[in-house]
Amino acid sequence: MQTNDTYQCITDAIIEQLEAGTKPWIRPWRGNSRGSLIPRRASGEAYRGINVLMLWLSGQLSGYDENTWMTYRQAAEHGGQVRKGEKGTLVVKYGTFTPKEREDDEQTIPYLRGYTVFNVEQIDNLPDYFTAPVEPVIAAPVPVDDRAERFIEMTGAAVTYTGTQACYRPALDDILIPARERFHDEVHLYSTIFHEIGHWSGVKHRLDRDLSGRFGSAAYAAEELVAEMSAAFVCADLGIAHDPRDNTASYIDSWLKILKADKRAIVTAAAKAQAVADYLQSLVGGDRVEAA
């Protein structure tokens, strides 16, 4: 598959869902007994960046509870068989190469190479350890999630509960979050906090992203997209739901304009969101945080 075709295929899939009013990075559930909602390879290694979005989208549309994916060959190596008629999902491998004519100047060219994977629910005869029982539905929302609270504390971000608007203030390097009772539930609360922490990560002395965009500009929309996806990634890795609820049709329209203008935009945004998630994990000292 050619690089341009891969970019376009990914972008078209995301655009289709945004136009239908669905944001593929929204995770409206808590996950199975393994905790994390980040998609995994057969080896247990986590997918990253745009592949997380593509697998979330495929799993959401197909109704899969499991988050492990593998190629046809990997399924066979584990004694499994992809069921006849099952449709695979596109994921990509990132890489760079140096053309022979440029070997002297050491310039490299990035590429995406697409390949197909299947969810373990599409595969028969796999060992039992590839599946896990789904947690029972929680009857009532829990107002405080100890793991999320511990993660927030360990990032070092200054979060103050006050006022009626959630925002990151670059000049003061702090985050304002409305009082807890103003949120619909703990899902709305933590999705909002991690969104603002995403912005917090972008200042010059952290990840140095462009935070200067005005509301309505392409730069503003791009940063909002990074912050929302990074919140989805962090929530998923903590095994908690993600649904900010506050993104209006105007946000979706602004994202659609970006994606339609640049087929690489969603891949770039997902990579930056992954960088945010990685950075926050580095601050808390690992890929798992237990409640204090």
Automatic annotation (TrEMBL):
Residues 147-272 form the Polyvalent protein metallopeptidase domain. GO terms for molecular function: single-stranded DNA binding. Residues 5-118 form the N-terminal domain. It comes from the Bacteria. This is Antirestriction protein ArdC. It comes from Rhizobium wenxiniae.
